[in-house]
Amino acid sequence: MQIYQVEEVGAYIRELFELDENLADLWVTGEITNLSKSPSGHYYFSLRDDASQLRGVMFCGNAARSAGAPRAGDAVVAHGKIDYYGPQGSLQLIVDLLYPAGVGEAYLRFEALRLRLEQEGLFAVERKRELPPLPPPHRSGHVRGRCRPPRRVDHPGAALSAGRGHAVAHHRPG
To answer: Is the dihedral of CA 121, 123, 125, 128 positive or negative?
Structure first.
């Protein structure tokens, strides 16, 4: 018979939650109850429906990115992951996005993608690059398909004629 320390069981439970892809990328809808805000700006609450409740926490950095501060009684859609919190022996939803329940599914997918890319550092200031300079005004132009003078392309001097058109388009004043 194997006897485990409480901490070992908690670590095992936490590992199970981390390995489960469904619990690591979870959308939950419910009503916010038991809301409290810590002095550090973290929100602690429960998400409820008619049959169950789930404890949730939204840390201050994620709260700043969500659509407003959570309020008791709000119907919301939350995105996050399930985590085991050993000191209390409870599981909770670590919320990284929180929106009113009326927000559309496409917008929620967009926000989840934006958040993932932001967490990967793809929007970091140090990754930004300067835009390339625009070409000088006398070098820019465009080719139109309809308004051009007629020219023959099936005669021996056609290549020379086309070359002259190119030279005119790229002429640089001396």
So the answer is: positive
Inform me whether the pLDDT recorded for 172 exceeds 80: no
pLDDT at 141: 55
pLDDT tens by residue, 25-40: 999 999 999 999 999 9
Whole-prediction pTM: 0.58
Higher pLDDT, 107 or 120: 120
Catalogue all structural domains in the chain, each as residue range(s) with its CATH number: 6-125 (2.40.50.140), 143-169 (no CATH)
Query: What 3 state SS string does the chain have?
Result: CCCCCHHHHHHHHHHHHHHCHHHHCEEEEEEEEEEEECCCCCEEEEEECCCCEEEEEECHHHHHHCCCCCCCCCEEEEEEEEEEECCCCEEEEEEEEEEECCCCHHHHHHHHHHHHHHHCCCCCHHHCCCCCCCCCHHHCCCCCCCCCCCCCCCCCCHHHHHHHHHHHHCCCCC
